[in-house]
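Entry 14. Ran structure prediction on the chain below.
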Amino acid sequence: MSSRTVIRGGLVITASDELHADVLIEDGRIAALAASGTAAAEAFTAERVVDATGKYVIPGGVDAHTHMELPFGGTFASDTFETGTRAAAWGGTTTIVDFAVQSVGHTLHEGLDAWHAKAEGNCAIDYAFHMIVSDVHDETLKEMDLLVEEGVTSFKQFMAYPGVFYSDDGQILRAMQRSAENGGLIMMHAENGIAIDVLVQQALARGETDPRHHGEVRKALLEAEATHRAIRLAQVAGAPLYVVHVSAQEAVAELARARDEGLPVFGETCPQYLFLSTDNLAEPDFEGAKYVCSTPLRPKEHQDALWRGLATNDLQVVSTDHCPFCFAGQKELGRGDFSRIPNGLPGVENRMDLLHQAVVDGRISRRRWIEIACATPARMFGLYPKKGTIAPGADADVVVYDPHAEQTVSAATHHMNVDYSAYEGKRITGRVETVLSRGVPVITEREYTGRTGHGVYTPRSTCQYLN
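Output, structure tokens:
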């Protein structure tokens, strides 16, 4: 039974084009586009017609960095795949790439299977997985080859969190060498965790226990040092590198230098680093705990460097690193010891809107908005052109976006399973109105019409920015 939808009269925006066009969707895919008002557009017929007059028609967002149900610090991220993907849809995101975790002493496949079990049948939108590699040895390296063949083509390593996810330089080098051979992409959490742990213990010994000290011990220079080291290790291995959640201007400078040298090095930042700062970490009465994440929020002057990095393409992607913990009962685990505050912020529902606000504010263009939030993450992680664009043959992951609607961000109205908003009270111009996932309405004129289990697992090809 064929199903057809026409979206009429909107301004279609992709990373490369803007045009007033009608979009024909057939059996879950984009079938055709035609300039609005032309005979070709008038010939589009369908059971469902969506009026997008005065609105934007954009690809569904691709959030390439989420952590649903992640175990961390003795607790779990508060969003399940069910609640988190529903919230993502409300925010105009139609694909997430989450992180399966290899535990030390276990195989990659055991970790991947565990994450498939969490996600399967529970997602409102499509999903894929990266693999966190915590235990590098000969068998792990062989498994990396198999995972790439199976469509898990990116591997995350940590220079931070000794005793949990940490890999030393030798382990990192070996994994990078393997990815250079098998086409995988190493993603790096670049902070000098060994040095940071020393600074944490020294701060606690001085009685510096408040959340603001989290930002003070995780120094920008130690992010920059680790970023530099990761770049050079990748260069030695002949491997590409993707640095996650870049927060410091000194780290951006390391990426810019590497890219100027022609190295295949990429960088991601997140809305929290573009819109929040150490002022939030310093909020009184332990409120700063809401903003504890790693890499940490930086002083405001770093924001301009990040926006500049996005403008010059030294940073290519904005993901969320969505990893929510409730203030009550979870963030509060760190009262009296900032090192025990679970690291992570909610944001999967806010990303597309916050970046549209950056368009309104003149920080980025409309096409750059779509590039950093949809097209580039899809290309970076082997999902394009199935995801990340509006073109014939692409999945019909489409958002009708009202650029004039005004909203105030609040925990009272968001759909993430967390008891606070990192952007509470922020006024934003622009709002998601209707969301289709593979042609199926998930949000219909600001009402949830999706269903748990609609989202399917999506294997990925290798990074499309590499030869």
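The chain is about 30% helix and 25% strand. Will compare against last week's run tomorrow.
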